[in-house]
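Reviewers of the previous submission asked for a worked example of the structure-prediction workflow described in the proposal, so we include one complete record here. The input consisted solely of the amino acid sequence. No template or homolog information was supplied to the procedure at any stage.
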Amino acid sequence: MNEKDMLQLKHAITMPVGLADNLSRACGENSRRRSRLRRPAALCALTAAILCLCIGSTSLAYNVYQEKQLAIFMEPDLTQEEIEALGSEISKTADVSSCQYVSGDEAWEEFKSAYLSDDPELKTLTDAFTENPLADSFNYKVSVRMGADTQAVREQISELPGVRKITTVREAEASH
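From that input alone, the workflow returned the following structure tokens.
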């Protein structure tokens, strides 16, 4: 991991300022220049940072994940070729690290397993559907790079023809 990556990681993680600075200094220095007296301090700073990451930032990591994962819903009247072309354009968008198509059938299966599978009565009810109620919920799951401005990526994608709605994981969870 280079120094630029370390600085991006430092700014993405919440920890005491002094600890973050010590971690950056300790990881960024050339190991040949470290004296035997500085190694214990560097190891202590690294250990403390790892503990902060493991103990205190689980919810931070989840919150970052929620904001960096987008669902791009499209107009229901698009042809398969238009859907694929839109996916290609989304993939080319700066700061998009991945773009995966989710069909309406996959969306329905995900919804059933996430929200309806625990209750036998609801499972029986969902099995009675003859048509997929989420057939028009096909979408692209998009991951935004860590250092990127998710809102700027969102705005850029929303201008593409055929895009109906964009949500983050957090917004989707709040609407259920």
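The chain has two domains: 3-56, 64-175. We consider this example representative of the routine output the project will generate in years two and three.
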